[in-house]
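Incident log entry.

Two folding requests arrived from the same account within the same minute. Monitoring flagged them as a possible duplicate submission, but the sequences differ. Recording both here for audit purposes.

Request one:
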Amino acid sequence: MTDAAELRRRTREFLAAHPPAGTERLDFLRARFDAGLAWVHFPEGLGGLGLPRSLQAVVDAELEAAGAPDNDPRRIGIGLGMAAPTILQYGTEEQKRRFLRPLWTGEEVWCQLFSEPGAGSDLAALGTRAVREGEDWVVDGQKVWTSSAHLARWAILIARTDPDVPKHRGITYFVCDMTDPGVEVRPLRQITGEAEFNEVFLTGVRIPDAHRLGEVGDGWRVAQTTLNNERVAIGGMRLPREGGMIGPVSKTWRDRPELRTHDLHQRLLKLWVDAEVARLTGERLRQQLVAGQPGPEGAGMKLAFARLNQEISGLEVELRGEEGLLYDDWTMRRPELVDFTGRDAGYRYLRSKGNSIEGGTSEVLLNIVAERVLGLPAEPRTDKDVAWKDLAR
């Protein structure tokens, strides 16, 4: 079945059998997954039908028109955008069947244990150790800037399993149980007053070898799948025209003519065009994904996302004048999601400062675009053939 009309018919039959108004939300989502209508490009039995990714829009349109519940994708974005494609590509059949369904329905939240205090931009320098003991791996170390760790049931984790080889080669990729007694999650309070990020301490955490993704020592290659998908998930999300940060400032401009100046008008016009170009480029990138896995092009989208958010939010604060300096709530909270458009201008301005750090710093992404997209010479590296244990730290 590859025809949009046939998929539309199938979706309508599903809705007739599971009317949204009379079906419990979780029951509806589980049934949708089992019917292959969760992500149609996934294999049959894993929430999909083995169809082109582009046909997902057919399903989504029918479900939206029927008032069907969604899986709250902003709350479970790490699972959907990063863990799921990695598990699909590198997981065993048992791992796929265990993790993908509750991940997609939102019953199990995921987080990402990658960055460390001494290995942020240089992720391959990570020092968290995993040592084999029988059928388990014992993990010790610290991770940082972990979104949703305070909510997560599972984590995707990279750890060093061989310190005697160069840093990129001695890493292995695992699925970590966040309920293990050796996992400690501490909040990191941000400039917004909230603590959506966390630092995570791992002390004697036992991970079964059955929860390893990919081969031992091949974790860097597995992690590239996660990172490439992460950049697309952050920078290439599907938006309508004037979706995202450009929407609130455009609305303010239309509703508040007394705030307008010629200079602000010129800046808004430029940013509006830039936002629309980024939106359409993201659409093209998603169409390219139909043919395969995301590549380094996602780094360019993530770069544009960070720059635009920061420039647009700065313009909005200036446009609003004294109002732009107000802030709705400094209460220490641990939110479940980041809401750029549902909060005030002050929140958008402060929160967007993190966009050039999270999901890969802009400096690292510039290198990726230069070397892997444009084909420019790589920066000189003195640590390429040096064992990790011998690196200066």
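Request two (distinct sequence, not a duplicate):
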Amino acid sequence: MRVISGPRARLVVLLAGAALAMGGCTRLRGHQGYVLDPDLVNSVQAGVDNRNSVARVLGQPTFTSQFGQGEWYYVSRDTRYFAYNRPHPVGQTVLRIRFDDKGVVRGVERTGLEQVAKITPFRKTTPTLGRQRSFFKDLFGNIGAVGAPIGGGPQQGGGRNGP
């Protein structure tokens, strides 16, 4: 067996190290949520389908409307990112299916990435109105207040008519 030494060995080690380092720079893809099938989505028709038929065709929704059963939402999002970085959305589809009072489909709407709002927090704390308290005031502020009567002490006298 022949052993490589000298400048050739350095070149091999350097190339192997560069290949390993470049492996960490690979762009990764991610998918979250519902997997949309365009043919199945197009088969849902307003005025024809109801909640049961939509659940059989598309499955259970990602979430439903907060008030009542008027709307179902199917959410799908695709992201791209490099290793150890925050994922960035490159595609999103929200399928909204509206039902009437009888459970029949009223409408099917799709929205995309234009509905995503980018939020950049100012600091790590939420500003509040009122007094500023330190960590120690929060920690030790209730010492002596536990069990104390409300309103400044026990009531004197004998009720409504007084003494």
